[in-house]
Amino acid sequence: MNNTVFIHQPATFSPTEGWSCVDFPCEDDIEGFLARIRVPDGYALSHVGKFPGQPMQITYGHDGRLYATLLMNGTREGAVYVMNADGTSRQYGASFYSPIGLAFQPNSDVLYVSSRLSATSGGAIWRINPDETTELVIDDLPCCFSVIDNQPNGMTFGPDGYLYIGIGSLTDRAEPRNPQVERNSALVPYEASILRINPHTGEKTVYAEGIRNPYDLTFDSFGQMYATDNGMVSGAGDRILRVVQGGNYGFPYWRERGCEDCPVRTGSLTILADMLTLPDYTLPRGIVAYTGSQFPSNVFNSLFVAFWNGTPHSQRIVRIDPLTVPFTPEEQALYTPEPFVTGLIRPVDVVIAPDGALVIADFIYGHIWRVSYVGVNNASGTATPSMVASPSPTADVMDVSPTAPPASIFVTSTPRP
């Protein structure tokens, strides 16, 4: 670990106009983006490459390459693509409808992908084997609120070896499907929850519930889960959650958030508080707890979160230290997450590279950006070639996989030769 203790000055903000395509640099204007995107002093920005579609989520494989779920040609059709060290990329495995989440099973080259089965129904998880053959392994997950919103979302393997995935709600605020006979819709099994899935049997259990649209999940070094949640169409409900097993986080009982049409909470229901309530329309997307070794030690276990939307609070990557987030709503109203990367268009995901750098996917043009720690003496804001480390194989992950029975719809760990 880098034992340096570094006091950050938040990233500054660049002008919002005057670029090669007015509000932003044009698609291939890399120098323009390097001038527009800002990082804190002591860090450097570099361009990794560009995917041929709109990335939804990204992850690194054990081969050191970057994998992404992409939407293609402005549609919801998509696939997984893999990016090589030179920035070129190709499709990996079969095509999917609206792919979002992807996660490699620990100690293996087996990749799991979440998607829809059709435009408006059918949540699924697929397995892409090392030979790129693709198999449907779960086809009965709740889906969907709209053509673009709320479905099986981001997923990750936990320290216990189980697969965790966020499942969005089928409605905006539990509005009735048939207003003549019901005031509100009841949640169906697994809706608006985080599921824990045995990677050998496919057995599903609810890990936490009451989460409207859990978009992405992460674990810190202590095994604590955090999640981003997207609020209602009206805006209220964007938040960061500290997730505990068995917890209920309140959806759809959101009258205290100003939703008069939401159902009334029963007195016996215990609802856990948001770790951080965000301004309306922030739309938090990807989240990662920093467990790398490159950044200063006081950054370890910080949360980096992609704020998607085009509002005064968004279009950036923020850093949140969970230990410094206030508890009361009054104090939270005065709290601002640290702007860490600004000047992005639609940041959608953020991950840790094998060498500990922070890697960001921007949805609009498919650009991938890398933030490296270079120290205050080298803090020019842009990485020189010598500062940009090549991807390296990830460290071995402790094999804590659940016991597999003889028959299995999921494969067991298959280490690389």
Description:
- The chain is mainly β and 417 residues long.
- It has one domain (30-387): TolB, C-terminal domain (Neuraminidase), CATH 2.120.10.
- It is 3% helix and 34% strand.
- The chain is built from two helices and 25 strands.
- The strands form six sheets. The protein has a five-stranded mixed sheet with strand order 22-23-24-1-25, covered by helices on one side. A four-stranded antiparallel sheet has the order 2-3-4-5, with no helix packed on it.
- A hairpin with a 5-residue loop joins β4 and β5.
- The longest helix has 7 residues, at 30-36.
- It is globular and about 65 Å long.
- It starts with 29 loop residues before the first helix and ends in a 35-residue tail after the last strand.
- 47% of the residues are buried.
